[in-house]
Amino acid sequence: MSDDTIRLVTIGRIVRRRWRLLTVFALLGALVGYGASLLFPPRYTTSASVLLPGTWEERELLTQTEVATSSVVVDRAAATLGWSGVSGSDLRDQVGAKATDGNIIKISGTAETPERAQRLSDQVAKEFVSYATRIASETADPGAAEELAALQQSVEDTSRRISKLADATDPGETVESVQTRTELEKLRTALREAISTIKQADPVDDEAKNMVVMGSAARPTGEAPPTRTQLVAGGALLFLLFAVIGHLAAARMSRRLRGEPEIAAALGSTLLGTVDVPVERPTHRSAGRGPRAWIRRLLGLDVRWNIPAPQLSGDEASRQIRYRRVCSRLRDRLPSPQRLLVVFPEGDEIARRAAGQLVDVAGSDPLLRAVAVPVSRPMVPDRERESGALVVLSAGSWTAGELAGVSEACADAGHAVVGVVLAGPVRATRSADRPRRTAVPAPAPTPTSFDGERDDATGVTG
Fold first, then answer.
1. Is the terminal CB of the chain with fewer CB neighbours within 10 Å at N or C?
2. What is the pLDDT of residues 325-375, one digit of tens each?
């Protein structure tokens, strides 16, 4: 698994190099969202407001919202509406209530048409007010009301008697007369406050009896979410996100080797150097034919997305220096001039071009012959005039198991791997720096087709 940190540049590279595939995923997600919108018909939602006069605590408002959506209220609304095939249990999922600021309860209704949604909200609001008023009336105690009226009458009689006593008191300004009038006035005030407190706690004077519906619900003009547009956009975005996550997961699970020491260790040899191959566009990993190859090219799957963009290179002369240095190190490792096979994985376009350039630069010292080896079932020509193999490949394209298979194929054919050369794509600085066309080997159609004529200019088997 790769431990590379996922950065925004990685996401941008996926979008830039896989935009065709991502577009297909987005269209597929949009079609799925459209299909889901056909399964779920459009819904419309509106709400009616009910005002609760007086002072209400928060828990009391929550209780009223539960009453508004209770089965009794919804069943009564369903019976009054009389919609065919719609019962109270069917309407419970379509009715909602919530308390807002100002002691207002909003009762919402959802239905298939704007008209039905409006009627449902209005009817549930009316049934809620009726049911809440009925509860308040039934819970009130008639005996308590009569006792309160009698107590109020007694207090009024007592207040009149206190007034008579105050008038009968010595009107003088003595201390005793002033204290007496003050005590009588305090007694009358206390009685009035007691009556006011009893009235506030009167169950008959319940605020629930004063609930009022604040007009008819507004007829909805648009669908309730999720709308068809939202489902289509959500499906496209969801599939697009899954595609990007899939690319990132595949990259982190990739076992392709990128480091030079890892590649050299997998082939059991020594790295002789790196060479540059100028490119003008992303290179294809495979150039197969047929419907599958055409579909891969159409969707951009034949281009590796997780390979960094080629860096700018120097001129042709600086690139030739790298090839000559590799050839010089190769000669130093050989005890005497001899023939070698330049082995590159079939389908590795960068390695194929680098192998042809190495054959061209080496000339006859050492004499090189390039062959393509299929990685799935590696097969290297038996040892004849060649007495060793030089492996050329691009980094980040092959796993350790695939490279080990190539090394074993070389050993099975009697060729010792004398070195490894890594080829990397670069962007040329000027069009004039493009390398001249050389005869590079075309991938072998079958693992056993190694017989061919030798190009006198390059030493490459065609």
1. N
2. 999 898 888 877 778 899 999 888 899 999 999 998 888 777 888 999 998
Give every CB contact of residue 214 below 8 A, 6+ residues apart in sequence: 48, 49, 50, 51, 104
- Ranked by mean pLDDT, the top range of 1-10, 240-249, 444-453 is 240-249
- DSSP sequence for 224-286: PSSPHHHHHHHHHHHHHHHHHHHHHHHHHT--B--SHHHHHHHHTS-EEEEEEEE-SSPPBS-
CA distance 380 to 413: 6
- CA 425 to mean position of chain CA atoms: 34
Rounded to 10 degrees, the C-alpha dihedral 298/299/302/303 comes to: 120
- Helix then strand then coil, % of the chain, to nearest 5: 50, 15, 35
Quick check: 361 and 388 in contact, CB under 8 A? Answer: no
Tell me the pairing of strands 104-111 and 44-51.
Answer: antiparallel
* 3-class DSSP assignment, residue 104: strand
**CB-CB contact of 114 with 46 (8 Å):** yes
d(CA 256, CA 259): 10
- The predicted-structure confidence for 55-96, as pLDDT tens digits, reads as follows 888 998 999 999 999 999 999 999 999 998 888 888 999 999
Contacts of residue 429, defined as CB under 8 A and 6 or more positions apart, other chains included, come to 312, 313, 314, 315
Q: How deeply is 275 buried, as exposed, middle or buried, from its count of CB atoms within 10 A (0-12, 13-18, 19+)?
A: buried
Amino acid symbol at 393: L
Those residues whose C-beta lies under 8 Å from the C-beta of residue 143, and which sit 6 or more positions away, are none
Which tokens is 109 given?
Answer: 């209704």
- How far apart are alpha carbons 242 and 22 in whole angstroms? 10
With a CB cutoff of 8 Å and minimum separation 6, the contacts of 131 are 67, 70, 72, 73, 76
Nearest to 131 by CA among 70, 79, 55: 70
Burial degree of 220 (CB within 10 A; 0-12, 13-18, 19+): buried
Measure the CA–CA gap between 364 and 459, rounded to whole angstroms: 8
| Pair of tokens at residue 419 | 């070195």
